[in-house]
Amino acid sequence: MPSTTSYITTRTFRSPFQLLAANPSLFKAFQEEFNIMVPQMGIASAQEISGTLANDTLWITCISGVEDGFPDLILSCTEDSRGNKLPVFIASPRPVSLLDDPAYLSPRLKAIAQTLYERTDSTRVFSVFAPAPVTATFAQLWTEKTGITCEAHPYYSATYARCTRQTFRNKQYTILGDTTYEMRLALEKDTDSVSDLCYEFAFTSKPFEMTRDQADEEARSLISQRRVWVHTINRSSEEEEIASVVAVTRETINVSAITKVYTNPKWRGKRCAERLVRYVTKLLLSRPGKESVVLYVGHNNPARKVYQRVGFTGPNGETLSDDPTNAGHWLELGFDQKRVELGLW
Question: What string of DSSP letters covers 242-298?
Answer without folding.
Answer: EEEEEEEEEE-SSEEEEEEEEE-GGGTTS-HHHHHHHHHHHHHHTSTT--EEEEEEE
